[in-house]
Design goal:
The complex is a heterodimer of chains A (476) and B (1120). Chain A is mostly helical and 476 residues long. Chain A is 66% helix and 0% strand. Chain A is built from 16 helices and no strands. Chain B is globular. The termini of chain B are far apart. With 1120 residues, chain B is an alpha/beta fold. The longest helix of chain B has 24 residues, at 51-74. In chain B, strands 5-4-16-15-14-6-7 form a seven-stranded mixed sheet, with helices on both faces. The chains are: A mainly alpha (476), B alpha/beta (1120). At the A-B interface, α2, α6 and α11 of A face β27, α29, α30 and β31 of B.
Chain lengths: 476, 1120
Amino acid sequence: MSEAALPSSIKIAPPPAELEREPLVRNQRGIGWLSDQVAAIMEGKTPTWWWMAFVPSFGFMSLLGAMLIYQISVGVGVWGNNHPVMWGWDIINFVWWIGIGHAGTLISAILFLLRQKWRTAVNRAAEAMTIFAVMCAGIYPALHVGRVWFDWWLFPIPNSNGPVWPQFRSPLMWDVFAVSTYFTVSALFWYVGLIPDLAVMRDRAKTTIRKFLYGLFALGWTGSNRHWSNYEKAYLILAGLSTPLVLSVHSIVSLDFAVSQLPGWHTTIFPPYFVAGAIFSGFGMVLTLLVPLRKICKLEDVITMRHIDVMCKVTLATGSIVGYAYGMEFFIAWYSGSPYERFAFINRAIGPYAWGYWIMIGCNVLVPQLFWWKAIRRNVWIVFILSILVNIGMWFERFVIIVISLHREFLPSNWSYFKPTWVDICTFLGTFGLFFTMFLLFLRFLPMIAISEVKGVTPQADPHHPLGGAKEGGHH
Amino acid sequence: MKTIPPPCPEPESGPQYWRSLEQLSDSPQFRQWVEREFPHGAGEMSDPHSRRHFMRIMAASFLLAGAGGMGSGCRRPEEKILPFGKAPENYIHGVPQYFATSRPSRGTAFPLVARSNDGRPTKVEGNAQFPGQAGGTDVYTQASILDLYDPDRSLKVTQAGNTRKREAGIDFLAELARKGQSSLGAGIAFLSDRSSSPSRHRLQSEILAKWPAARWFEHEAVDFEVHREAARAAFGPDPSGATGMRPVVSPVYRLEKASRIVTLDADILGSEEESARLIQGYAHGRRLEKPTDPLSRLYAVESLMTLTGGNADHRLRVVPSLVPAIAARLAQEVLRVTGALGEAVSPLSGVAGPASAHEKWIVECAKDLAAHKGSSLVVAGYRQPLAVHLMAHAINAALGAVGTTLELRPLMAPASGSLPELAALLNRGQVDTLVILNDNPVYSAPADLDWASTQRKAKTVVRLGFYQDETGLAADWHFPATHYLESWSDGRTADGTLVPVQPLIAPLFDGVMELEFLARLAGLPVTSAYEIVRTTFKAQSLAGDPEQAWKKFLHDGYLEGSAPKPVAASFKVSALVSSLASLTPPAPASAEKLEVVFFRDSRVDDGRQNNNGWLQELPDPVTKMVWENVVLLSQKTADDLKLQIVDREDNNLRVPWVRVILAGRNVEGPAWIQPGMADHTVGLALGYGRGKAGRVGQNTGYNAYKIRPAGSLHRAAGAQVQFLENLHPLSTTQNHWAMEGRPIVREANLEQFKERPDFAKGMNMHEPPGLRGKDGQLEPLYQNPLDIPGPDGKSPRDRATHAWGMSIDLNTCVGCSACMIACQGENNIPIVGKNQVSRNREMHWIRLDRYYAGEVADPQMILQPMLCQHCESAPCENVCPVNATVHDEEGLNVMAYNRCVGTRYCSNNCPYKVRRFNYVDYNRRPLHLLAGPFYTTPLLHSTDGEWDLIRWWKNPDRGIRPDDEWELLKLVKNPDVTVRMRGVMEKCTFCVQRIEQAKIAQKVKAGPQGNIEVPDGTIKTACEQACPSGAIVFGNMKDPNSRVSKLKAQQRDYTVLEFLATKPRITYLAKIRNPNPAMPDYAKSPGSFKEWEGMGNKLGHHGAAHGTPGGYAADKKGAH
């Protein structure tokens, strides 16, 4: 049946242009262009910018190694942690990196289940970011302990020490399970999503070694219907598995604090507030990474302004949740009637670390409010700067929670002040080195866009679209 | 023909199976048949040298050879075992032994009991058997054990800096003796410290009798002799001329009998001589159970902020030069009211004038004293001139204190000259040979004597000293002195009782005992110190078998009845009148003309314990500074001088560096604003800035001796302070001063206590309904599994025999800090260094929190010992991921160091912050790295010419310590306590090693069916044992009659942060102040109470339903 056969009275008018959604891939780019453009960065000569980024990143990663060797050989004392601030940059950075690691799996799992097709352009890079961020995060709890060589005591491994088991009442114990599960599932999810694209890379490979390696990891993918059918089932199952993890891992990290009885930590609001904050910081980091990348890799037609706009909106929403949580914390502290609770929050706002608190409020509460304006959401420069401010703000949120709560608590005789040492700073810089080294290697050797998934959301993939489907032959 | 070998002789093992009856019978026929029928392999059944057997043997041999080779790397280190051929009597390996001895200190000696672990002394305690002494000690004594093992102590005899054999030194002494003999001592001068030793006095007399031309001088940088001299002048006989001995009178202040005490610049609870004994007496008067119990009252007149002033009910802050006037006015007033010694009133008025500003204070104080005639006491401090002491004694005489609160014990002391006299002699070139005993005048002599060059005017300088210090280096011959725990000697306590100084260990190095040194120097026939002491003792000995008496003397640590009888003498007004004439009226102090106070440091004494790491790291009880002294100024003085000291509560505290100029000399140091300090007064602590100390003491603090004038040793006028720069970093263990209105230390005035005996519990936080469980107890956040009842309805804790608990009485605790050092010694707590303290990483398990309340100019000081509270529902335990900190049934919050991985979460969740973390390997860190700036990694460092990693690998215990440190400092460790490595958390264990020892002893004693409950008072924690005031009491809370249960049942009992429901096993008894309502500075409630009220708090009502009854036993009763 053709359109012309319908009576004109029931002919459906096309939607007005202003209601037409922006296409997910601009400029009607074809399927072949997509493959070529995404593969270009992996197949061409190593770009100069890549080397310019990689060499310092690798340098900082080496610095991380040196700092960790120094710290392990001397002791945690090389850091600024003191008494009473027994946790300093180690746990701040752990929570910060873990928080960043939230966007990837949220984008790939939750948005997948919610059929948010725009995710396809950003999910691969976001997942890679997640995995590398969790790696950076994992360094801290593993190495911040006094005796790293006994870290395995935190795992329930049968042993001859008694036998002594870990203490399952401790939130740190829960952390071990939460973070390791999250990392495992995220890595698996990422890899499964990579398989069709690895096959693409194998098929395009010109050298034997590339063909062999991509082929090895593509697991013999042929793109048959059976493969696709199994693949999509597996992907759906992993998405389902990852979804609760997105919520659980930061909830459990927040319990490290909420389970204690320290004013400023002992707060029931923490689990949802931490998850919102993590998504907030994760999206901030995705924006920080992708805004320059889409330009450098000439992928503006795949990662469009619409994508950036949507991510800004998520940032605005989660930032507002975080702001609400800050306000609610103050209210509860007042409502509790406990002078110790009240003091903890007043001390945040006007104590010796007030500057840290107000940086946090500025970056996390005020800055995202700018995203109410479309003009700002659509200005890549502003978005880039604001996304960095979001990351800074979220770092200070952890600083506020950990250091400001600890430095002045119950007995005034213990009150003290925390200052990082150069080792703290270099270790933190070193984790950036590790992160960017890994991320740059990812860019160079793996497709940063999920090629097959983006192809699936192009008009060409839609049989009902004028551009899509097998036009010749029509329907039989 | 085949021969059939005999059956295999190897014993068979395991069950034997047979396949046929023939095989079972194993007849020769069968064997032959087997040989014939089964040619393959059958021979093996009977051949002892079978192939399999061969393989088996060879395999085992290879295995053993291999294991041997491999095992050589894994074997325990080879140790030569030297068992006792015959064990010494009463010696059980591993069980410590205790010996009585005493620590000589200036003109007195403190009776002690020392613990010896397999022949090495590891701890000293007060001798509780000594009459009138409960067993407490002071910080100097507690820390003195570390001096014994100081790797920087003088080890060898040296001549002009070159090491000599000990024999060479002895020969030199013999030669000196011959020379002295021929010249009859002409040109020989002795300079010694003060000593109470009768043996030394005897040797001194013998030497001076033998060498009549020789002269003897005594010098102490901080000298308490003025107390004895004043008591003699006021009450005693006049000094007689010719004989070598002079009479003195030792005033024994019986604070326990005093209900009203006035101190005139006397830090009786801190830096005065024998403060431990004074604190014990003071605490006696401050102990109370009920509001109606008598409570003593302390008035303090002082210029520095001291523990005495901080504990006083009334404190008058004055410049030091005003103290004589106040003493005079007070004396006048007391004499007027009592009507005694009327002839002294008018001479006093010449001095009393400047005190008019404090008229009302003095008059009311005098009234109060007079109202308590016979039970009041006035004490003048060592920094005050003789006249002030005489005025104090005049008041004491008028108040009838002599014989009650003031005992006068007549003693004889050798007559000797002073340091300025010796300087004059030296300057006249009349000293050929100068012999210096112990004293360190090159460091501590007054600046205007220019001692280093004055001393050089003697041809030969011979020195006996514990350290190769400033004087040792300037001497021609230096002899290493022995530590008192290595020496034979004797001494007299403050009341004159004879006590022995017994060695617990043979001299570790080439040390020479003081008595032996003197005997050899004088060429006496008997040179053994032991014999000298015995001879002296024989002369002292009372009736009875002298051998038995000697044994008893050494065993008990004192000679009973050897104290001279107290005299009841009348006050000599003439002495007072003549001394008043020597007083010059004070010029008013101003910002341009400041008064300077030189005082004994609360940690390193006059510098003698400067190289003692425990003391260096002990925070000053008032300033809380460590590792150095500061220039103390009041806020007003600093304002007048425009000095900005911004206390940023920052771990990188930086203060102005100032220069103090006095009479053309100057010294530079860091300025510090001390609340409660007198205006226009500069406080300079002695004892720091040593020119030559050891690895610990080097470069700590400034040297106040550099500007100390000979004319006025303790206070001087006309000083100036110049601001230099704002740079010097200080390390303090407590950054915040105020209690912020929190009810942490709870205190009230006596009247308030009478009104509301339950005020301490009334200060508990208001509790919203619904927080308590069915049993009326607060529901803890962290339920302890040991509290969960079993099938019999009893929890493991209920079934335990003991419930350990502690009560700390804030009313008797004066903050002397002896507990901190005792704990450090008992529990092998490392020192961390100034740099680490600036990060608040000090390791003390018990600390003394010091808060101020009120104005900066005149604050009230509040002290609180804080240590692991052993919470029943411990927040630390729940959060440890590896079960490293858990509870035991008896209520100890135990710490398994071996299990700790160091996540530090326990400390974060501890509301009292009493857990300490080994951030680096403090126990293995070499002493020279203490100063910082930071620890190098062992990967890039070597020690004694060896790569640190190899060193560590060879001996992990020694780590990277140089051998000399390691070999000595390991000896001081208590073998019953684990030495913690880096990365583990540690904290107070309630001295679990002492608990276990007592429990084992009790089990042995109890036998199979006996009572295993340890009797009350058997276990004393180290802090409790060292505490001179008896403020800390440990015991079994299950026993309702134990001391701790009774204390916890008192109404003053309260829990710190009770609203957290952590249920600490340590509770505190609230502090009661006893101000005089008639005084001008009277306030209805203490400053901290007012602050608490200022936060909108009101005393709540805690009836039976709400109240948390004191004892554990009572607790449980209330539950059912």
